Task: inverse folding
């Protein structure tokens, strides 16, 4: 029989620990986010459905995006025990300069719709944590304003080739004048993908005030107040637009672009050139032979061709084909630091994350982006330590097994 006694106050007192009270509602909300998936859940609650779906969705049946995430989920990490991991170095060289973390913030369109702080918030966080940030051609903050918001950040400009080549050349020249380090040419959007969530939601840029969106406004009043009481959406590359995203892309972008046009790009840009949207080994080798300094293995987050190749699957073969002639980056499907570690081990020089920080932005503005960076950084560091790898340069294919 167990003897019982009434606990004395001196025994209870050490167990009573009052949790510090967080008075800021944004910080209180973000404290609950332990993963990028948690940030996604918060973002979904706080953002109008059409805006959330624009960020979260992909093309057609969304098979490409599911496959990318599923491959990350099914890959197996292979730890090496009894290694000194008392100090973990997360830094790596990207385009010949040290990045404090092995990932960069990817270009995303219409970012101020996700949260009114927009691209300025993202570049400020990139500056804080010491990583590159790529401003999209379809960004909602100007090239110059982003440069002013993050004067010491490593800034890249992502370019789509326009039908109006003079307009595209002007964007490149403005980027150079504003101190952008690299040009990222995206090549997987000859026409817009079929993003069916956007069609079903009647999503336009900017959001239209319809009976459906007015009803949604009653469920997300803070978002609408911020949209309507801050400066109107302006674009990095055009003055205004009042239609759908697909209509905008099909009207602006040049479907006649070929490999020969890289010579034109090189004639107007003499800095590092990154080609984004590579989905085969042959294309990776072709663009490197044509003068690319880096390639991004990407199917546009699954937002263009559904059933496209999964970037992580082709990564080892691309790394072998390209060798040391160019850097290799990877995006699509990344939802954790372990995903980033797996890509690095299989040959990527760095990863690009887009949705991950956008979920943070929607969940809490700049603080939410900071939280996303904190989560990914902690996960990368912990995963490397558990793998027995003290630095990014020590990661190799023996640390990952793909199904």
Result:
């Amino acid at each position: 029989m167990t003897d019982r006694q009434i606990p004395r106050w001196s025994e209870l007192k050490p167990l009573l620990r009052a949790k510090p009270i967080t008075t800021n509602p944004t910080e209180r909300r973000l404290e609950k986010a332990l993963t990028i998936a948690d940030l996604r859940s918060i973002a979904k609650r706080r953002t109008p459905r059409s805006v959330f779906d624009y960020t979260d969705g992909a093309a057609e049946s969304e098979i490409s995006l599911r496959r990318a995430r599923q491959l990350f989920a099914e890959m197996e990490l292979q730890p090496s025990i009894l290694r000194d991991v008392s100090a973990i170095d997360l830094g790596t060289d990207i385009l010949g300069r040290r990045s404090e973390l092995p990932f960069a913030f990817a270009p995303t369109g219409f970012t101020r719709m996700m949260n009114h702080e927009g691209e300025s918030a993202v570049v400020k966080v990139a500056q804080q944590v010491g990583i590159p940030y790529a401003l999209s051609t379809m960004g909602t903050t100007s090239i110059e304003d982003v440069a002013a918001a993050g004067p010491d950040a490593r800034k890249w400009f992502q370019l789509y080739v326009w039908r109006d080549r003079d307009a595209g050349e002007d964007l490149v020249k403005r980027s150079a004048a504003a101190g952008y380090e690299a040009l990222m040419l995206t090549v997987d959007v000859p026409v817009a993908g079929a993003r069916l969530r956007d069609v079903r939601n009647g999503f336009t840029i900017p959001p239209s005030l319809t009976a459906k969106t007015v009803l949604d406004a009653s469920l997300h009043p803070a978002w609408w107040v911020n949209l309507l009481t801050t400066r109107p959406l302006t674009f990095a590359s055009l003055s205004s637009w009042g239609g759908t995203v697909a209509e905008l892309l099909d009207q602006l972008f040049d479907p006649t672009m070929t490999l020969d046009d890289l010579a034109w790009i090189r004639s107007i840009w003499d800095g590092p050139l990154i080609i984004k949207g590579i989905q085969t080994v042959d294309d990776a080798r072709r663009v490197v032979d044509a003068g690319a300094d880096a390639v991004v293995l990407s199917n546009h987050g699954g937002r263009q061709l559904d059933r496209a190749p999964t970037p992580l699957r082709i990564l080892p073969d691309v790394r072998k084909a390209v060798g040391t002639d160019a850097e290799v980056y990877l995006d699509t499907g990344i939802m954790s630091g372990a995903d980033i570690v797996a890509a690095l081990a299989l040959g990527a020089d760095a990863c690009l994350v887009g949705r991950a920080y956008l979920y943070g932005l929607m969940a809490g503005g700049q603080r939410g982006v900071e939280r996303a960076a904190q989560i990914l950084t902690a996960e990368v560091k912990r995963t490397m330590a558990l793998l027995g790898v003290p630095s990014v340069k020590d990661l190799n294919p023996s640390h990952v097994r793909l199904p």
Observations:
- The mean pLDDT is 91.
- The two ends are 54 Å apart (CA to CA).
- The chain has 18 helices and twelve strands.
- Residues 355-387 form the longest helix (33 residues).
